[in-house]
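To: structure subgroup
Subject: Chain for Friday's discussion

All,

I'm putting the inputs and outputs inline so they're searchable in the archive.
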Amino acid sequence: MGAIYRSELMSLCQLFLQTDSAFEAVAELGEISLCQFRDLNPDASAYQRKFIHEVRRCEQMERQLRIVREEVEKDEMFIPDVFHKVPTPTPRDIHELEAKFEKIDEELATINSSTAGLKKNFLKLQQIKHVLKKVRHQLDEGQRREAFKSISEQQHMENGNNVQLYVTAEDEKVKTESELRFVAGVIRRDRVLAFERVIWRLCRGNVYARTEDIEMGPHHAFQEDNEMSVFILFFSGEQLRSRVRKICEGFRAVIVDVPETEAQRSELAINVQTQLEDMGTVVGQTLDHRNIVLSAAAQNLKLWEIQVLKLKAVFHTLNMFNIDVTQKCLIAECWIPTDDIHVVQNALMHASKLSGSTVPSVLHQMETSETPPTHFRLNKFTQGFQNIVHAYGIASYREVNPAPFTIISFPFIFAVMFGDTGHGIIMFLAALLLVLFEKKIEQAKIKDEIFNTFYGGRYVILLMGLFSMYTGLVYNDIYSRSINVFQSQWKNPYTFRLLNQTLYDQDAQESSTQETTLQLPPDPAFKDMDGPYPFGLDPIWNLAENKLNFMNPMKMKSSVIIGIAQMSFGLFLSVLNYWHKGSWVDFLFVFIPQVLFLSLIFIYLCVQIVMKWVFFYVRPKKVFGLMYPGSNCAPSLLIGLINMFMMKSRKKGFVGDHDVTFEQCHQQLWYPHQDIIEIAFLLVAVISIPVMLFVKPLIQKWKVSKGQHVEVHSDDGSHGEFNFADVMVYQAIHTIEFVLGCISHTASYLRLWALSLAHAQLSEVLWEMVMRIAFTMKGGAGAAAIFLIFWAFSILSICILILMEGLSAFLHAIRLHWVEFQSKFYGGTGILFEPFSFRRLIRLYEGLED
C-alpha cells in the first residue's frame, strides 16, 4: 500500500564515517532530513562527549549574537530575512566567525560602557542646570524672609509662646543671612508628596520646603524620559542639615551643591551649559559609531544565527556517535526510510567529495527487533489531516493510517452538523484566500499562534466549507432560508372560493389576534406523480409550522445511519491490520464476532430505517404482504428494538380480522417471520460476546503450552512475557469496551442531529430577530437601515454561527473520529519519526513551529 495508508518501511542503518569527513557528512544529512540518529552514548554526561568543546564555542557565539540582536532591536533597526539556502560553515570557519563576533562584542561593550558613563554625567549636569534655573528666584531676599518667618513661628509655637514677634527689617535681614541655611536637589516626581510629609514630621516644621516640577525630557542620545521635581529646603542649624541630608538619601534624591552668592551661581550655570554642549558632541559621535557597528551587524545577523545554529546542531549530533579504537572513524546508528537509503548514500558520497576524503563513508543495514519509528510521506494538503490524527496518537509501525479516510469523512461529518450553504461559502472563501496567498504568508513568517493554527489547517477548512455548501444544499438551508430551484412538489389544494370560506370559518371561531393556519394534506396537495423534490429538501418545509416535526426524525435517523456506517468501516479496516500481522486468530475470533454483533443489532436497525422510508407511505397499501392502513401505523423502530431485546410477543401485521386496526399498531410485527429473525439475531449477537472474550486467550495459552512463541501486546504498544491472567484482563477490557461502545458510540453520533438542529435554529433566530427588521422599513430610512442592519447581521453571523458554532462542530467532529471511528482499528501507540533536519531546527528557532 502507499505510504499514506501505512507508514514507510524503516531500516536501522549503521554509518561508518571517516573523522575528516564526518562533519560534512552530518551536514549533508541535515539538509536532506532523512536520518533519525540514535544516541550511542546514553550514559555519558555532556562533559564526557568528544565534541563538547566545539558545542561550547557555538553556545558562546550564540550568546554574542543574542547581545547583538538585543541591541539592534533596542534601536529598532531592520534585520533582513534570509530566503536562500544557507550553507553550513566548515569547522575551519569557526575561528573566523569567532573573531568576527568577538570584535563586534568588544566594540559594543566599549561603546555601551562609554555611553553609560556619558549618560550618568549628562544626567547629572542636566539636573544641576535645572536646579540652578529653578532655585534662582527661591533664593532672593523675599523668599528667605518668608522662610525665616515660617521657621521662627514654628519654633515659638513649640516653646508655648504664641505672641506675635515684631522684629525690624534690619534685624530680620541679619538673622536671615547669619542663621538660615538651605539644601537643593532633584527628586522623582512621584515621591514628592511623601518626601514633604516626612520632612515636616521628622523636622517638626522647622524646615521650609518648596518644590517645582521640571521636564527633563527624552534626550536623543538616551531616549529616557524622567519626570523629576526640584526641591529647596530652608532651615537653621547644623543638626537639621544632617537630618535633612539623611532624609534626602533615604528618598534617593540627588543633592546639588548650590553656591551661596548669585555671581557664583551664574558662573556655575555657564560652566554647566558649556560642558553639556561639549558632551552632546561626544555623545553624538559615540552614537554614530554605534549605529555604524549595529547597522553592519544587522545586515548579516540572521545569516550568522543560522550558520551558528547549523554548526551547533552538527556537533551536537556528532556527540551521539561512537569512536572506534583507531580514533579514525565515527560510528553512528540511525533510522532511515528504506526507499530513501540510496538518497542517503548519495549524500554521503557528496560529503566525501566536499571534504576531500579518499576513504568513502559506509552505510550498512542492520537487523533489529526494535520497533521502528512511524513515518508518512505527506504534502501540504495531507499534513493538516495527519495532524488531527497525530493529536490523538502516533500510528504504530505499519498500522493502518486513518488520515486518508479522514480527508473525506472529517469535513463531511463537520458539514452534517454545520450544514448551511451561505456559511459554508464564507468559510470556503476564507480558506481559499489562505491557499492562494500561501507563498506570501510563508515569506512573512508570521509568529502569531492562532493565525498559524488556522493557516496550518487551511486545506481542512477549505474542505469543511466545501462540504458545508453541499449539505446546506441537501438541507436547502442558506442563512436559514430555502431556495426554490426546481419548484416545490407541493401544490395549493384550495380554490379561491374554498380558501375564502375556510378563512371566514376560522375567523368566526378564533380571535382576530390569532394567525390562521392552513393545512396541506398529502393526498390532495402532494404531486406524487412527479416524485419528490429532485435534490435536497423541498422548500415548502421552510414555511411549514411543523417543520421541526419533519426535520428532527429525518436528521436523527440520518445521524444513526452515518454513525453506524463509519463505525462499520472502521471495523473492516481492522482486517487490514490483522492481515498485515498474519493473525488469523484475531480475524476469526475477534473480527468476525465483532462484525456479527454490530451487524445483527445496529446495521439491522439501519436497514429498518431505510425500509421504513421506502415502503411506508401516508396512503394505505400492502407492505411485505401485510395490509398497511396509513402513517399512524408506521413502525416505531425504537420500541421495536426494545421489544427485540425483551423478546416481547407481538401481533403479526397492522390489522386483524374484519380489517380492524390493532391498538398500538405501530408496535406490531411488520414483515414476515420478524420475531424468529430477531430472536436468531439476538442469540447470535449474545453468543459472539464470549467468543470475543475467551477464544483468543485460550488459543494463545494453548500455543504457549506447545512451546510456540506468542506476541503479547499491551495498550502502550509494548511487548512482554505471556501471562494468562494479564491477557484475560486485557481481552475483557477490549470486549467490554467494544460491546458497550457499540451502544454508546451510536448514541454519540446523535450529536450530528443535535448540532445541526442548533445551528439551523440559531441561524433562523438571527434572521428573524435582526435581518427581517430591515425589510419592514420603507423609504430612505429603510435603505439606510438595510445597510446598517446587514453589517450587524454579518458580524453576528461570522462571530456566532461561523466561528463559535464552527469551532463547536469542529471539536465534535474530532471526538467522533478519535473515539467512535479510530477506536475500532487504531492503536496510536507508535513513535514519530523525527529526522535530523536543518529546516525544522530553523523553523523552531524562528518560532514558526512548536
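Points worth raising on Friday:
Confidence is low (pLDDT under 50) at residues 161-177.
The CA atoms of residues 554 and 745 lie 19 Å apart.

D.
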